[in-house]
Amino acid sequence: MEAPAAPPDPAEPQIVEITVNSPDQMRELGRKLAKLLRAGDLVILSGELGAGKTTLTRGLGEGLGVRGAVTSPTFVMARVHPALGDGPPLVHVDAYRLSGGLETMEDFDLDVSLPDSVVVVEWGEGKVEELTDDRLQILIHRAVGDTTDEVRHVTVTGLGDRWARTGLSVLSA
């Protein structure tokens, strides 16, 4: 008889690599990811300008079933999309124009919103990690320069106990 498998180590990040070939596939990735998300989840999006962070978030909004069109909150900095059903609302933040860490983000009250919402922060790397040890960090890489290449390489890293027990591999299926 085989010994039961050891539980996943929450200290070990769960990493999934995905290749996306079009904006439609990026939205579909967002819809798939939405099925794994619940209130209290923090998603930090990183990548070059035009990489697809807002397109991914648009798919998340569709998958979560929230009200309102998900667009880039660059100039308003944050938008709250209430849930249309039983799911959590989506708080979508664009930290591109902000410098500094979490103290710079205090006006957004993300620490208050997080327990009841899914919080997505574009350009949040180095700014919001202190909110929780359990978070998803998503890096979207695209070719830069004069290119019409739609291919994106997405790295999804689940950190903390919450993501150690969640099968991120379904995202690459």
Model description:
With 173 residues, the chain is of the alpha/beta class. Helices cover 18% and strands 25% of the residues. The protein contains 4 helices and 7 strands. It has a 7-stranded mixed beta sheet. A hairpin with an 8-residue loop joins strand 3 and strand 4 (90-94). Helix 1 (23-34) crosses helix 2. The two termini are 31 Å apart. The mean pLDDT is 83.
Key features?
18% helix, alpha/beta, single chain, 173 residues
**How helix-rich are the residues, as a percent range?**
10-25%
The helix-strand sequence is EHEHEEHEEEH
Per DSSP, what share of the residues sits in E-state strands of 2 or more residues?
15-25%
Mass-distribution shape: globular
Strand order of the largest sheet: 1-7-6-2-5-4-3
Q: Counting H and I runs of at least 4 residues, what is the number of helices?
A: 4
Straight-line N-to-C gap: 31 Å
Mean pLDDT: 83
> How many E-type strands?
7
Structural class: alpha/beta
Low-confidence stretches: none
User: Nearest-angstrom radius of gyration?
Assistant: 16 Å
Largest sheet properties: 7 strands, mixed
In short:
The protein is 18% helix and 25% strand. By secondary structure, it is α/β, with parallel strands linked by helices.
Write the layout of secondary structure elements.
Layout (H helix, E strand, L loop, with lengths): L13 E7 L2 H12 L7 E6 L5 H12 L13 E4 L8 E5 L15 H4 L4 E5 L12 E8 L9 E8 L1 H4 L9
Parallel strand pairs: 2-5, 2-6, 4-5
Antiparallel strand pairs: 1-7, 3-4, 6-7
Helix pairs in contact: 1-2
